Amino acid sequence: MSAVLISIDRDSVCMGDDVASHRVTLDVDPDRTLGSLLAQALREYRLASVGGEVSWIAEVSYGGYRRDEHGVVHAPVSHGLALLHVPYPDGETTIIPLSNHFLAMPLREMAGRAGGGAVTLDFRYLSEGARWRPEEFVARYA
């Protein structure tokens, strides 16, 4: 199998950030893993932030919208890969892997699952991504 076509995209975070598309498309070695693609994306593509702590969910989606034999339309399939927390105003970004199974998956296999459809590494923005200690969470929501 020759190179696999993969898109990388992220949500817009505020007015003005949505003026231009954030999507890039790459020809990628099919023997690479989703985890190595995520690592490259974290090095090369800026995850925007506004004032305050935020989080991002990195997920892979594949396939396209499709209609089954009953006429029901199904959306592309998505799997969470990692949770990224960006502290504010300073501090170290942390990454929590959510699926070692998918992070270790060769892109060749992911492309096969897509059945000719698109494969996209998406970053979903969570504006209320501040960290809480367990006792703070329990006190607020108990």
Overall description:
With 142 residues, this protein is an alpha+beta fold. It has helices at 34-44, 100-103, 107-114, 134-141, and strands at 4-10, 24-28, 54-62, 66-67, 73-74, 77-86, 94-97, 119-126. The protein has one domain. The protein has four helices and eight strands. The strands form two sheets. The chain has a six-stranded mixed β-sheet. The N and C termini lie far apart (53 Å).
Lateral strand order in the biggest sheet? 2-1-8-3-6-7
CA gyration radius, whole angstroms: 17 Å
Our count of helices gives 4
- Tally of separate domains: 1
Task: Draw up the topology in text.
Elements: E1 4-10, E2 24-28, H1 34-44, E3 54-62, E4 66-67, E5 73-74, E6 77-86, E7 94-97, H2 100-103, H3 107-114, E8 119-126, H4 134-141
Parallel strand pairs: 1-8
Antiparallel strand pairs: 1-2, 3-6, 3-8, 4-5, 6-7
